[in-house]
Amino acid sequence: MSVRELVVLGTSSAVPTRRRNHNGYFLRWDTHGVLFDPGEGTQRQMSLAGLAATDITRVCITHFHGDHCLGLPGTIQRIARDRVPHTVRVAYPAQGQRYWQRLRHATAFHDTDVVVAQPVDGTGSCPVGEPDLRITALPLRHSTPTYGYRLAEPDGWRMLPERLAAHGVHGPMIRRLQHQGAVTTDDGRRVELAQCARPRRGQVMAFVMDTAECDQAVELARDADLLVIESTYLDTEEHLARSYGHLTARQAGRIAARAGAGTLVLTHLSERYEQEEDPRFVTQAAAEFDGHVVLAQDLQRIPLPPRNPDRATRMG
């Protein structure tokens, strides 16, 4: 049975705290394992979460500030040490190539050739994706080149048993109808897929880290079932968000509302906030967004929500 869930490895921003590790997010999506923004301590957090280097099939780096990438050298070296047999593509902003080179070869170790660099620039899909998971990267507004990511399952069809029976489609014919779009029944009639199925939108997850409010953040989150987004500050520190190119919880909620997202996951919290202030993040985001709001906690597991057929707009 396939599993689709977000495993939260760390939720702090620039400085880790006793209850919040540096950034780190692992998305299990069927056979894919996507590691986003591994900060310091990612290996240990993965161990605590029951994850192994062999679970990683792709890494997505939003930008090269330390809290989003200083766990990358250890992750790569663990991939080498554990002799991961499959290709692990690493997407990152092409403008940060020098930082990639430093992190990729930060120390001496027995290297591996399964780690494949995948720099992204401009706008659009990552250069190499998978047929069952389209990955789009768009630039965000931050103090250094930063990209957000959108992962989308291709749209498909939900077969309707009563219509299949009514049209005389059965057995192996059903699979042929799914793959070919039409079949000829035993009595010679041509049956189209649309006669026996209804469209099913693919699931979408968006990952938006360090950014000010911008149209690209909304576009990445458009109709997403799950939006993981930074909410570094509360309203009282909006001036800091503006100065440093970050979001408040309220602004994150506004992006989710504009995008028509489903579930909103707030993370990347400033170390200035104590635990008793946690509810304020949810309250301020909910003032702009009427969907489900989750304030992420380290080692939390968040299942991808069911597809919402009402959110049917797709990115081109």
UniProtKB/TrEMBL annotation:
<feature type="binding site">
    <location>
        <position position="142"/>
    </location>
    <ligand>
        <name>Zn(2+) 1</name>
    </ligand>
</feature>
<dbReference type="GO" id="GO:0042781">
    <property type="term" value="F:3'-tRNA processing endoribonuclease activity"/>
</dbReference>
<keyword id="KW-0862">Zinc</keyword>
<keyword id="KW-0540">Nuclease</keyword>
<feature type="binding site">
    <location>
        <position position="65"/>
    </location>
    <ligand>
        <name>Zn(2+) 1</name>
    </ligand>
</feature>
<feature type="binding site">
    <location>
        <position position="268"/>
    </location>
    <ligand>
        <name>Zn(2+) 2</name>
    </ligand>
</feature>
<dbReference type="InterPro" id="IPR001279">
    <property type="entry name" value="Metallo-B-lactamas"/>
</dbReference>
<dbReference type="InterPro" id="IPR013471">
    <property type="entry name" value="RNase_Z/BN"/>
</dbReference>
<keyword id="KW-0819">tRNA processing</keyword>
<keyword id="KW-0378">Hydrolase</keyword>
<feature type="domain" description="Metallo-beta-lactamase">
    <location>
        <begin position="34"/>
        <end position="152"/>
    </location>
</feature>
<feature type="binding site">
    <location>
        <position position="210"/>
    </location>
    <ligand>
        <name>Zn(2+) 1</name>
    </ligand>
</feature>
<comment type="similarity">
    <text>Belongs to the RNase Z family.</text>
</comment>
<feature type="domain" description="Metallo-beta-lactamase">
    <location>
        <begin position="201"/>
        <end position="268"/>
    </location>
</feature>
<keyword id="KW-0479">Metal-binding</keyword>
<feature type="binding site">
    <location>
        <position position="68"/>
    </location>
    <ligand>
        <name>Zn(2+) 2</name>
    </ligand>
</feature>
<feature type="binding site">
    <location>
        <position position="63"/>
    </location>
    <ligand>
        <name>Zn(2+) 1</name>
    </ligand>
</feature>
<comment type="subunit">
    <text>Homodimer.</text>
</comment>
<comment type="function">
    <text>Zinc phosphodiesterase, which displays some tRNA 3'-processing endonuclease activity. Probably involved in tRNA maturation, by removing a 3'-trailer from precursor tRNA.</text>
</comment>
<feature type="binding site">
    <location>
        <position position="67"/>
    </location>
    <ligand>
        <name>Zn(2+) 2</name>
    </ligand>
</feature>
<feature type="active site" description="Proton acceptor">
    <location>
        <position position="67"/>
    </location>
</feature>
<dbReference type="Pfam" id="PF12706">
    <property type="entry name" value="Lactamase_B_2"/>
</dbReference>
<keyword id="KW-0255">Endonuclease</keyword>
<protein>
    <recommendedName>
        <fullName>Ribonuclease Z</fullName>
        <ecNumber>3.1.26.11</ecNumber>
    </recommendedName>
</protein>
<dbReference type="InterPro" id="IPR036866">
    <property type="entry name" value="RibonucZ/Hydroxyglut_hydro"/>
</dbReference>
<feature type="binding site">
    <location>
        <position position="210"/>
    </location>
    <ligand>
        <name>Zn(2+) 2</name>
    </ligand>
</feature>
<dbReference type="GO" id="GO:0008270">
    <property type="term" value="F:zinc ion binding"/>
</dbReference>
